Amino acid sequence: MAGNNPNSKPMNLTLKVWRQRNSQAAGKLETYQVKDISPEMSFLEMMDVLNEDLLRGGVDPIAFDHDCREGICGMCSLYINGRAHGPERGTTTCQLHMRKFSDGDTITIEPWRAGPFPILKDLCVDRSALDRIQQAGGYVSINTGGVPDANEIPIPKLIADKAFDAATCIGCGACVAACKNSSAMLFTSAKISQLALLPQGKVERKTRVENMVAQMDIEGFGACSNIGACAAECPVGISLENIAMMNREYVSAKFTSENV
């Protein structure tokens, strides 16, 4: 419910939503009206209200990706009024609240737009290309044993913090969708940097960066042009410094590479 806040007056909105029956069908924007939307609702809760109205009217509900609804799983993937995850920086779609919009607004909702992310249905896209990049080298195969006491970990705090910052990438693909070249450099570099900074990741350091960059190219992602839209739209604030680190890792690996 809206509560007693005078600014929490329910809103009526016009939604222009991308509808596409399957990956082979032609898609188009269709217009819907939603009424009495509480500003305290999340964006996905508003979508649930719309789908309930569609079901009551005998219309196929809108398909969209979601899971945790807590901003950590990386499933929600909507372009909202031309912005990945919507108008609020550092926020996933599921954590975006309707108070960021105003009564009477028209909201355009589209799926990620990138060649390596084919549309499956409506707002759902296939992001398995990111999984294949991860599988190409984003792992540690050595046995690291049990969890040691915190004060026994031989990793300087500065390095540990940088590795943790890179590890916060949730793999949502907003960086790809925001990039005019559909580059996956920010995602890939975060996974590479996370492991390259840690002792247990040193063993496969060279093959990791070679294999993951090669897989990124195979999947059809574009090159980085250093515009920075990826970092600007990343909901967890992954830094462009990771791309610089990945480039250094790649050049270093190629000097002694066996994959010439």
Automatic annotation (TrEMBL):
Q: Which InterPro entries match?
A: 2Fe-2S_ferredoxin-like_sf (IPR036010), 2Fe-2S_ferredoxin-type (IPR001041), 2Fe2S_fd_BS (IPR006058), 4Fe4S_Fe-S-bd (IPR017896), Beta-grasp_dom_sf (IPR012675), Helical_ferredxn (IPR009051), SDH/FRD_Iron-Sulfur (IPR050573), Succ_DH/fum_Rdtase_N (IPR025192)
Q: Which cofactor does it need?
A: [3Fe-4S] cluster; [2Fe-2S] cluster
Describe the location of the 4Fe-4S ferredoxin-type domain by residue ranges. 160-190
Origin: domain of life? Bacteria
Q: Where is the 2Fe-2S ferredoxin-type domain?
A: 11-113
The cross-references to PROSITE patterns, in alphabetical order and at most eight, read: 2FE2S_FER_1, 2FE2S_FER_2, 4FE4S_FER_2
Q: Report the NCBIfam families cross-referenced here.
A: PRK07570.1 (NF005746)
* Family that this chain belongs to: Belongs to the succinate dehydrogenase/fumarate reductase iron-sulfur protein family.
Name of the molecule in the record: Succinate dehydrogenase/fumarate reductase iron-sulfur subunit
User: Native species of this protein?
Assistant: Nibribacter koreensis
